[in-house]
Here is the input.
Amino acid sequence: MGSSQHYRFHKLSTVQPNSSTLETLQKLKKLQNLVQQSKVAAANIRQVIKALDKVAAQAGQPFLFSKCLEINERLVRNTLARCDDVKYRTFRAGQAKALLVYINGLTDTNKLETNVIDCLITAAHVSIITKPTEVITNILIGNCLLVIDGFSDVLVIDSAKYEKRQISKAENEDASKGPHDSFNETLSDNIALVRRRTKDSDLKVEILEIGARTKTSVALLYIDDLVKPGLVDEVRNQLLAIRIDMVILAANIEEFLTNQVWNPFPNVLATERPDKTVAGLYDGRLSIIIDNSPSVLILPVSLQDFMQSVDDYTTRPSVASLIRFSRYISAFLAIFLPALYICVVAYHPGMIPSGLSFFIAELRAKTPFPASIEALLMEALLEIFQEAIIRLPQKLSAAAGVVGALVIGTTVVEAALANALLVVVVATTGLASFCMPSYTFATALRVFRIPALVAAATLGLYGVAIFFVVMIVYLCSLHSYGESYLGDLFDITLLEDWKDGLLRFPAKFLKSRPKRLGTIDKTRKGDTSGKS
Here is the structure.
């Protein structure tokens, strides 16, 4: 704004002294309508310009590059209009004018100075691209566009610079022994972490692009001579069939990999550990790595995959087997313990010793609610407590834990809203759900806890038994790419898989890969040539 320009502001009554307030408001309304109409007209003009640019272009392309630098600059500017972080820099390339187009913050400007402007292209990766859509995509991912006057071909220079989180310790799947590195949000780093753990030429990496607007890179990893025939094609076709504007989380992909959208149990295993991913690949599974996400998806999976932890393979087999078995018991308690409490207290008190029965009756005499209402109230408090601990900042979670313990453990009992035994039952239920190695699987168990409570409050132990049978039937109906969700638990032909399922046998007995996965090479020892 020039210093010679002066602006003076007046009251409306001064500008239009003879107009009434109503007339002034009407004129302001007309002015607002004119401004709005001008905005609409400007948007329509931009659309017309884009349509005219498409006339000479190929099908599916927004425009066609010409030999005139000014025209090419206008075409790019129109496509990236109102993008103030896009920079346009002109310079002389010999006798010709040249233009650099890049995004500030995503492009390494030091590379541009050293490898392009000073010595006119000594960059390692330079590509000639003719399709404008690919040119725009390259600009948006951080590469630089070089346009030279007199040439219709444009150059794309690899100069992307990504701000990324360093490879750090696993936060959600920490192990007492074994590697401590974890995936970060950069696709190339995550693929490198997998490659670092194997020198197998049969490890294949296919990179797809998903998301109509975000164009997120998604990598599909598998061992070519192990994976079940047809599985790679099925998963690849599922990924290519995804129609979505944006992919910013692994969960955006995960929801499209199942036909049972209302199923609370996870259909794929999400992990942040490279060693767990490689182990899954050599079992005959596939891995999906999504750019900008630290979670890698592994499939197909069964229930027992969510019961296993890295620590199972770093401790003695007898101890690991005991821990695994305790997790199954914990999963049962996380669903049915409050329901069993209601059954015993309200319907079948004769199942417990008389002394304990009298003690429970004395405790319940102080509370005004039936056992089922007490249990539902405490379950609601437990859910609120769990969510508060998870969502609060780390510095406040400890304080929230103390407050929650006081509310649930002391205040509720003193207020006669629930008895002390029920508090113990609910606390044990919460601890049992925390024993699950997979958080998504633990949340699925929480979903079934309320229906179990309702069944117990309605029919007592018979209702719990009926609900248990219905739940087992439901789990038997679930499949993950042809694999039963219950895995080998009820299939007598898959007893071989018990060696690394419900129990964990010593490594020298684990000579074959999971039979249920249908791998091509079923033995872990490889052939006579030494290939594994």
Notes: The first strand starts at residue 86 and ends at 93.
